[in-house]
Amino acid sequence: MIDQLLFEELTDGICITDAGGTPLYLNSAAARMLEQGAGAHDTSICEQLCGRFVSGNSEYPSACPLKVPGSTEKTALNMGRCRGMDLRVRCVRLATALFDSWEIEKHFTIIEDATAEMAAERLKEDWRNMIAHDLANPLTTIYGALKTLEEIPPGQPLEEGEINLIRMCTRTSQRMNETLTLFLQVARLDSGLMPTRPEILELLPLIRECVQEQAIAAADKSISIDLVLPESLRVRADRNLLVRVLQNLMSNAIKFTPGKGRITVSATTESDGGVVAVGIRDNGPGIASEDLPFMFDRFHQVRGKGDTLIRGNGLGLAFCKQAMKAMGGDIRVESALRFGTEFRVRLGRVA
Ligand SMILES: Nc1ncnc2c1ncn2[C@@H]1O[C@H](COP(=O)(O)OP(=O)(O)O)[C@@H](O)[C@H]1O
Ligand SMILES: [Mg+2]
Q1: Which pLDDT does position 144 carry in this prediction?
Q2: Most buried by CB count within 10 Å: which residue of 235, 267, 313, 319?
């Protein structure tokens, strides 16, 4: 049939069903999206699509306007996430003799893969959140300080409190700048636009440098840092990215571990020596198992009962995950509440 040939060319899924949702026809895009052969025409499309949405309108399919008894609605639209895709489903009640007789009511369903569109939407949402939470507050603080300083008559020497206001403005704007840079890097790594420059690196001097940089922050909290490193290990990685990943993990370990704590930085080989793992372990508060799956999500910060949030933006671990992926490696976390946390970054070893 000519229409069927046309449908086969489309990237959108097309289904024609009876009023109960039983398929009479699926084009190949629909069969792919539903992960079934074009011949599998038994289970209701409504159950396979709207009934499986893990997000979106969960009332469907029973609340579908086309399925409410006695309804004369002609169209229905639902959207949700299913099998790793964001799908937009439009159904139209139509009269046609195609696929059967005129007497049997048909529904024409168009399934659109809106995954890329929703990813762009989420990125916009992230920008809005970041501007609202991480940039608006410090900007208000800076504005308040500058308003106060503006009142000082020209030529009048600054008092100590006023100099402190200037210092606070510098610190705050620097933090805003760091947040923006981190966010942009996460977004660029996300979209594959950040070029990586892989090279063969001696890992141990690089780890020592990162630890050295954090020594003052650790000493301020009387936190000891132990190194457990073998003689020599070489990996293929982008130096800049790897340094920033290790810096983020070290600074988290120091930030979240209480005073007099202990951090152990180790480098070991795994998988018969083919993989190098750098572990950063602390004996801080640990992370609850229900939070672990979300640790690498943008803006995720764990807030315990009665805790005040330690300053941050929840972007550091998202950056680490994207950076390790861009270098062909990965990052894992193991943690137990009250015992501590270990982040392990893994990269291919170079002999
Ligand atoms: N070593 C750690 N121990 C306990 N919690 C941690 C540790 N590292 C990260 N976290 C938790 O993960 C959250 C996200 O970390 P991150 O993405 O670096 O953001 P930020 O440091 O800006 O809060 C932190 O807010 C904290 O709740
Ligand atoms: Mg952090």
Answers
A1: 95
A2: 235
Least confident of 25-29, 58-62, 135-139, 197-201: 58-62
Report which bound ligand comes closest to the CA of 254.
1
- The sheet carrying 23-26 orders its strands as 23-26, 13-18, 106-113, 85-94, 75-82, 55-56
In order of their start, the domains of the chain are 2-113 (3.30.450.20), 118-190 (1.10.287.130), 198-350 (3.30.565.10)
Q: Is the pLDDT of residue 40 over 70?
A: no
- In this structure, the strands spanning 75-82 and 55-56 are antiparallel
Mean pLDDT of the chain: 88
The reply to whether the predicted model has a pTM over 0.85 is: no
Could you tell me the distance, in angstroms and rounded to a whole number, from the CA of residue 129 to the centre of ligand 1? 18
Q: Measured between alpha carbons, how far is 76 from 167 in angstroms, rounded to an integer? A: 58
User: Higher pLDDT residue, 65 or 343?
Assistant: 343
For residue 21, give both structure tokens.
Answer: 């949702």
User: 234-238 and 340-350 as β-strands: parallel, antiparallel, unpaired?
Assistant: antiparallel
Instruction: Tell me how far the alpha carbon of residue 311 lies from the centroid of ligand 1, in angstroms.
Output: 10
Shortest-distance ligand to the CA of residue 318: 1
The Å distance, Cα 136 to ligand 1 centre, comes to: 22
Token code pair at residue 80: 């949700």
- d(Cα 195, Cα 198) in Å, to the nearest integer? 10
| DSSP, res 6 | H
Higher local confidence (pLDDT), 230 or 58 = 230
